[in-house]
Amino acid sequence: MVDATIGHGGHSLLFGKTLGPEAVIVGFDVDNDAVRRARSKLEALACKVVLLNSNFSQIVGQLNDIDIDKVDFILADLGVSSPQLADPDFGLSFQANMPLDMRIDKRLKRTAADIVNKEDEKTLADLIYEFGQDRASRRIARFIVRRRRIEPITTTAQLGQIVCKALARKQPGQRSRIHPATRTFQALRIAVNNELENLKQLLASAPGLLKKDGYIAIISFHSLEDRLVKYDFKQNAGDGIYKILTKKPIVPTRDQVVQNRRARSAKLRIAQKRH
Known about the structure:
The protein has 275 residues and is an alpha/beta fold. The chain contains twelve helices and seven strands. It has two domains: 2-82 and 195-273, Vaccinia Virus protein VP39 (Rossmann fold, 3-Layer(aba) Sandwich); 88-193, Putative methyltransferase TM0872, insert domain (DNA polymerase, domain 1), CATH 1.10.150. 44% of the residues lie in helices and 15% in strands. A seven-stranded mixed sheet has the order 3-2-1-4-5-7-6, with helices on both faces. Strand 2 (24-28), helix 2 (32-42) and strand 3 form a beta-alpha-beta unit.
């Protein structure tokens, strides 16, 4: 089994409890602290556990390096974890004042602050529109450029306030389904971490890695990710490679959303390798 986003090991722990000593779980994560925590959580499992501080886009090469060429199951949970959102080292949240970083993998060079302070207005607007799907992207970009002429934008609180001002909304007390800065922050995080291209690489690699009757399961959290997964599964099903097991994505129940509000946008799609 490959857990492409090991996180703190929750999914692998559930699966690992059903596996014997002949089984192997290979876990990937670009967050080295998550790898360390997962190792502690999974150390009592009967199966072998191999954890790699690597991006799942490198899945083929990394598995070849440990002499694995075929797998039974690939799981990827594409969500950012609650501890990561709360950790100022990542700079992901507008709910607290953090350095404007957004790199999940600290080996990456470009931060969100680099993008916000260096890209031209059109590039910023296009990025917010494409990755954040915010129709007000041009206005937001204009406000960002106007503000950075006065001083560099270096914190999440600064950026959140700029977006709120651009959208003429009060912060943070105004009632709204989502915070006005949500889409801009999503767009920057996707751009900084190259999330969509990495997902495309994982999806492209999966058919060659899965054994006959093996499974791939992807949990996505916004429409850009889900659209990529849906299209890939459909295309592979049309080519006779996959059988789609979820005609519609599996979504959390009302009780699950009450227990974990961040799960409200989760969508799980599953496919099985035919041959």
